Inverse folding.
């Protein structure tokens, strides 16, 4: 009799666990569908990103915006050996990323999608692009120049930049919030390898972050650029 009762308890406990797992799985699927729905939803305003966790801030007041995070001053050399600073991007909507020329994986897709965007906006004087090498000891001005020629990079519109490793990494981690691994480990010696494309407005605020290896993100960037143009 006791064994029978134990069997019944085990049966109902097992059924309860299965039910909980099914309910959890169902909720995860629903949440996933909701995230996809939000991501694909057409919007007419873009948020501001102020922190490394990319929590969106919607419609801050003018006073709040004055205190918001901006991309700080920087100074690097581009593929032509010219000095590139914030002034070269001031008043432009631009897309930034981090890469290295010998990367055989995600950087290839990143560059392909950046090139697609360059082609789309080749006649648009409001848009620029900047790609920072994370392997500056190898990616010299000369190497970047050859890479740019091979990848059909317009040096007037798309800057491939190199410089001191510490300054590039500091900019990636503290300004663009681009190093996901660093957020978790806080290891300053780690190598940056990110697939993010970062959309920055004419005032230096981060307004969008995208998985730059995905072709469909190109379309989303296009939509968001048009929104920024109307601000």
């Amino acid at each position: 009799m006791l064994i029978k009762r134990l069997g019944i308890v085990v049966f109902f406990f097992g059924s309860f666990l299965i039910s909980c797992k099914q309910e959890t799985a169902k909720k995860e699927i629903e949440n996933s569908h909701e995230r996809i729905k939000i991501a694909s939803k057409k919007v007419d305003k873009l948020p501001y990103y102020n922190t490394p966790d990319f929590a969106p801030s919607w419609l801050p007041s003018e006073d709040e915006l004055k205190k918001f995070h901006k991309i700080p001053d920087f100074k690097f050399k581009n593929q032509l050996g010219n000095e590139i600073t914030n002034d070269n991007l001031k008043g432009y909507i631009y897309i930034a990323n981090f890469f290295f020329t010998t990367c055989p994986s995600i950087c290839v897709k990143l560059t392909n999608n950046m090139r697609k965007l360059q082609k789309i906006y080749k006649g648009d004087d409001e848009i620029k692009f900047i790609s920072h090498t994370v392997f500056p000891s190898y990616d010299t001005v000369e190497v970047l120049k050859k890479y740019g020629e091979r990848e059909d990079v317009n040096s007037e519109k798309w800057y491939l930049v190199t410089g001191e490793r510490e300054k590039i990494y500091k900019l990636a981690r503290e300004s663009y919030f681009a190093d996901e691994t660093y957020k978790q480990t806080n290891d300053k010696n780690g190598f940056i390898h990110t697939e993010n494309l970062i959309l920055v407005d004419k005032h230096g605020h981060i307004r969008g972050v995208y998985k730059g290896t995905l072709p469909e993100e190109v379309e989303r960037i296009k939509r968001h650029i048009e929104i920024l143009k109307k601000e």
